[in-house]
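User: Look at the shape:
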Amino acid sequence: MDDLVLVGRVARAHGNRGQVIVNLETDFPDERFRVGAVVMVGAAATARAIRDVRFHQGRPIIALEGIETMNDAEALAGAELKVPAPDARALPEHTYYHYDLIGCSVVDAAGRAIGDVTGIEGTMEMSRLVVAGDRGEVLIPLVAEICPEIDVRGRRIVVAPPPGLLELNERGGDA
C-alpha cells in the first residue's frame, strides 16, 4: 500500500505483556496513538488496533491487538507503524506532511538546483529539510523567510537562504 503515512517506529518491547515503546514520526501523537485507533504494522502492513496506550517521556507505550507476550513484542522491534493517508487530518495553511515534501526538488531563487528533499528533521515548530545535492547533504530551515515557495503538486521548493546558510549547514560533503 503506497497510500500509507508513517506515524512511528517500534523501538523495543516494554514489560512482559506485549507492549512496545514507539519512536514518534508524527506531530499528532495523541490523535495517532489512542485506544481503538488502527495502525498498519510492519512491511506486511498488518492492521492492528491499539488496545492500551500511555505516554512516558513523550513516547507512547502501546499494546496492540494480537500481540500478547514479550516475545511477540520483541519481534516487532524496528517495525514501521502507518495509517492510511486519507485518515491524515487537514493541516493549517503553510504546514505540510513529511511525505508531501520528501522527493521535492529544491532550487534557489535563480532556479539553480540545490538537491532533492530526502527527509525532514525536527518538530512542526522547528523543522529542517534534509536535502541531498552534489556537495552532500544540507539542512535548510523550513521557515517562510527561507522557503518562500513550496509547490507540493509541482514537487518543487524555492529557497532564499541568507548568505552562508547552505555552506554552514552542509553534512557529509566533499570538504
